[in-house]
Amino acid sequence: MTPQIDPRAGAAVKAADRAHVFHSWSAQELIDPLAVAGAEGSYFWDYDGKRYLDLTSGLVYTNIGYQHPKVVAAIQEQAAKLTTFAPAFAIESRSEAARLIAERTPGDLDKIFFTNGGADAVEHAVRMARLHTGRTKVMSAYRSYHGGTQQAVNLTGDPRRWASDSASAGVVRFWAPFLYRSRFYAETEEQECARALEHLETTIRFEGPATIAAIILETVPGTAGIMVPPPGYLAGVREICDRYGIVFVLDEVMAGFGRTGEWFAADLFGVVPDLMTFAKGVNSGYVPLGGVAISGAIADTFGKRPYPGGLTYSGHPLACAAAVATINVMAEEGVVENARNLGASVVEPGLRELAERHPSVGEVRGVGMFWAVELVKNRETREPLVPYNAAGEANAPMAAFAAAAKKAGVWPFVNMNRTHFVPPLNATEAELKEGLAALDTALSAADAHTD
Ligand code: PLP
């Protein structure tokens, strides 16, 4: 039920926002943020009472939807008991969150370093890898997103890093697998896997293996387009890392905590990294929290020697209480299984059926509740529906798509020529079908822009 709301309050919220809030990744005068009055479960609504089904899960983090009563209550209880306490102390909510996370992370990733979000988790994973190996270079994929802070944005392959590229010394980029856009080199997933592994190893040899501290990869790259790696790729990277003494970092900030239908996407591939970053879904983003799960060998490096790094709010009690409650809700309510089952039985067939009918759909790919729909101008040439546009100029076809989706009652995730279907992991079958129906309408708007 949408509660009673006052549209005039929305106007005041909007006016103050436009006067004083400086928005991320935006040209301040070209944006028109929606004033949101409230949210519950898979929906949010504006001050006019218009409801949207959130196909974005915020920024792909509200994995158990908005305002889950058990998590809200846990935050309230923690606030009443002990709102904050410095990281050097052992605190119940912090140690319990670390225990629950370590219980679920693969292999011997049993020590948890807490951060405030994903980017700082990446910063610390890289620092740990450099100190552990005594080497400096870090390798990352071109099609990737690792966060907006200095080191993390430089590891990011997405053009947003260009703004601060001067600080990218020590970063070496490579091409991870992406069959749909690699077809002149590879025709099958097996060929693409072999191409990507050979390219990675050749790059390492040319850079000098003894100079490379870490390879960082999103287990399933998210923001850059949800490219599920072919079978064997991550195991192959693991082998290469072992061969050259390189630390293997998997970034599970987006893919972790159930998004792919497993607690961690690494479990889909049976691969155990040396370091694994997480954030977002760890507590559905109710209070900022991220972290690094650390292998025994790397933890031992800092057994007698201090780890030189930390954050004032590391393992904040409110954030950790939210994580404990979220993980328990996910386990008790079968949220990971829901993502796996409805992903396979409703989302995948639904998106594939839309792909058959809409000429603007070039490819549908994903797993669990983690899906990308790649929109093209022409299915034969695979020309993206938007020209590559680093200047961020108006993107008419995708704007038409997004406007039609919103009119049909869903909030779509749009990035370049893609829309991502990334609803909360506990979305119901009816909600997912509602999302697919709205997407059907919106894709018709995109079809109008095809050849
Ligand atoms: N790593 C990955 C894979 C992400 O998707 C993101 C954010 O989208 C980040 C890191 C950065 O996380 P945060 O925005 O919490 O700093």
How are the secondary structure elements laid out?
Blueprint: H1 7-20, E1 36-40, E2 43-46, E3 51-54, H2 57-60, H3 69-81, H4 92-104, E4 111-115, H5 118-133, E5 137-141, H6 150-155, E6 171-174, H7 189-207, E7 212-218, H8 233-244, E8 247-251, H9 266-269, E9 275-278, E10 290-294, H10 296-301, H11 317-332, H12 335-357, E11 361-367, E12 370-378, E13 383-384, H13 396-407, E14 410-411, E15 413-415, E16 418-421, H14 429-447
Parallel strand pairs: 3-14, 5-6, 5-7, 7-8, 8-9
Antiparallel strand pairs: 1-2, 2-3, 4-10, 9-10, 11-12, 12-13, 12-16, 15-16
The chain binds pyridoxal-5'-phosphate.
What does this structure look like?
The chain has 451 residues and is α/β, with parallel strands linked by helices. The chain has 2 domains: 172 residues, Aspartate Aminotransferase, domain 1, CATH 3.90.1150.10; 264 residues, Type I PLP-dependent aspartate aminotransferase-like (Major domain) (Aspartate Aminotransferase, domain 2). The strands form 3 sheets. The protein has a 7-stranded mixed sheet, sandwiched between helices. Strands 11, 12, 13, 15 and 16 form a 5-stranded antiparallel sheet that branches. Strand 8, helix 9 and strand 9 form a beta-alpha-beta unit. The longest helix is centred in the C-terminal third of the chain and has 23 residues. It is globular and about 60 Å long. The site of pyridoxal-5'-phosphate has 16 residues, from helix 5.
